[in-house]
Amino acid sequence: MTTSLSNTYGKSYNYSSGTASSFNGPNDNNWGIDTVAFYFPVDIADCDHTSDIWQFDGPRNRQKVETEGGSLAANLICGHANVHINLYMSSSICRVELNAARVLYPKSEKLLHPGALSRVIELIIDQLTGVVSPIFDTATESGELIRDPKWEVQITFTRLDVTRDFFISDPSIVRLGLAHIKSKNQKSHKVTTSPNDGWSIESGTKYEGKDIFYDKKAELRQLKVAVSSDTPGAIYRFESVLKKTRLSKSGMKNLSEVTDERVWAAIQSRWEKTGWHAPLPSSTGFLEAVSHLTQTRMDGLIGYLHRRAAGQEDSIPPHYRREKDKLALSCGLTPGLPVELLGKATRYLDLESGRIKQLPIIPPI
After folding, report:
1. φ, ψ dihedrals at 350, nearest 5°
2. How far apart are the first and last CA of the chain?
3. What is the rounded distance in angstroms from the CA atom of residue 154 to the CA atom of residue 92?
4. By the 8 A CB rule, do 159 and 241 touch?
């Protein structure tokens, strides 16, 4: 059973960035926040353990020590979002997970702007009034709830998904290029092609999070969600799941730290680490791309590229790999691609614009 909770205050809200004057990132609406998971401290004795919203004992223990205390779980509807809630007895916390954008919008390509996240989370907490008692809320003698002005500091994230959409005019060349790129420090690398779900590439670790680049339009078609016909190309989404160390490095462990700048910086950092900003393959010819090199440098680079294509990068000394990667990129070549696919690249995926753009001219080294 799914319980629907109405907006306690019956209000509608308009959101703006709040930092537009100082923010130097993209000025479009095709980036932001997707799924979030967070927790906040509660007065466990003051929570209503017998409320009808609790559907079952929580199947997910926050830690092994929670087994003795147990937990309660609920699935609620807030706006258009499915909200998963766990109330943990031993640690006196309430954990919440949801796709934050769905609170405001039905299933679509729309993302949540960072400036709206605080209000979305507050709306969920407000709707739990009378069932869950956050320690940052206190009641007056008249029964009015007063919220600590610094309540956002007590909202701690365990997961934060940051996202950027791309509008791609030539999906086949992008799929070909990205499929052979291995990200830095990755533990897994998976490429999936499905006639229904489209194409996706994923890399990451089990606990720290993952980076995904996938066909968003295909996903929406599978869910029978209408997609605007005037989009400038296929919609591909870059989605980075931040957990643990990745989340700490982003500087956004709690809600008060979420800003436009930090969200965009996290997107930029993860995009760079994936290597998916590398030049896209071209059919202009491999020899043309390296023709300006001396024979010795050309032979060395060709041998190196063959070894990278064969997956032997771990056996190559790091300093030599850095030197050859720099040389290859200066020629417009992407290490890791099969050599027969390499040519004089002229385009790349530009994060700032969310489009395929022409490579800047780099003087040969």
Report:
1. -95, 115
2. 64
3. 13
4. yes
